[in-house]
Amino acid sequence: MDRRLHYGNTAKILHWSVAVLLLVQFPIGWFMPDIHAGPPGAAMSLHVSFGILILAVVAVRLIWRITHPVAPESSLPGWQRVSSEAVHWLLYALVLGTTLTGWLFASFRGWSLSLFSIVPLPMLASKSASDLKLMEGWHQVAEWALLVVIVLHISAALLHIFVYRDGVMRLMLIDEHQRP
Ligand code: HEM
Ligand code: HEM
């Protein structure tokens, strides 16, 4: 499949939607009072709903990315092209890892989950105290690894804006003249 030279507006809108949703999701996770307890209260229910929304948007984004591949900026040195692509795939893997560990964790606790109290969500596994113990900590590992890689990704974007002063940041800015 031919690789495009630019992200289309669909890829850009999906990118920024995930960024905004994560900006909301981390603080909910850190500040929700009903953490480590059950059944889920209002904050935890919101955390689950935002988490599943993130999973859905990232799944669409991943399919879009695979069917609309974009070539790395040709002016970049080889090591930057390889490392930025590696970081992008790592971001996809870590978002999937964080959402799926969270969903599994809630399932092992036997919670009945829903999307914003509207759409009932299936459990990924049945209630199990032993599996819950095995899973302990993995959601935290995934969310911290994701945060570290996001900081790396944003630092690279800032480096391109303020130090290299090249067109990399422009690749992800919404441009109304561009095709989807
Ligand atoms: C990318 C999406 C997500 C992020 C960034 C995220 C982040 C967090 C954070 C920061 C915490 C508090 C720290 C801790 O783990 O002790 C947390 C806890 C938790 N999250 Fe998530 N989460 C995400 C998705 C989900 C999803 C989809 C679910 C369930 C369907 C979920 C269920 C939970 C549960 C059950 C806890 C409490 C863990 C415990 O009791 O130890 N999370 N999450
Ligand atoms: C202030 C926050 C952010 C900025 C300034 C930013 C900037 C950028 C830029 C400039 C690119 C294009 C780079 C290139 O193609 O070489 C890009 C791509 C990408 N970004 Fe971000 N980003 C941000 C947040 C995030 C977050 C939170 C995630 C996900 C966890 C993310 C995931 C990705 C991925 C996976 C790509 C590759 C393109 C794609 O698959 O759609 N970004 N970002």
Fold topology:
Blueprint lengths: L8 H23 L10 H26 L10 H31 L4 E3 L3 E3 L7 H7 L2 H27 L16
Antiparallel strand pairs: 1-2
Helix pairs in contact: 1-2, 2-3, 3-4, 3-5
Q: Quick one: biggest sheet?
A: 2 strands, antiparallel
Q: Please state how the strands of the largest beta sheet are arranged side by side.
A: 1-2
Pick out the low-confidence regions: none
CATH class: Mainly Alpha
Q: What do you see in this structure?
A:
The protein has 180 residues and is mainly α. It has a single domain (9-172), classed as Fumarate Reductase Cytochrome B subunit, CATH 1.20.950. It contains five helices and two strands, in the order αααββαα. It has helices at 9-31, 42-67, 78-108, 129-135, 138-164; strands at residues 113-115, 119-121. The protein has a two-stranded antiparallel sheet with strand order 1-2. A hairpin with a 3-residue loop joins β1 and β2 (119-121). α1 (9-31) runs antiparallel to α2, α2 packs antiparallel against α3 and α3 (78-108) packs antiparallel against α4. The longest helix is centred in the middle third of the chain and has 31 residues, at 78-108. The model has no long low-confidence stretch (mean pLDDT 92). The structure holds protoporphyrin IX containing FE (2 copies). Residues 22, 25-26, 29-30, 35-36, 47-48, 51-52, 54-55, 95, 98-99, 102-103, 105-106, 113, 139-140, 143 line the site of one protoporphyrin IX containing FE.
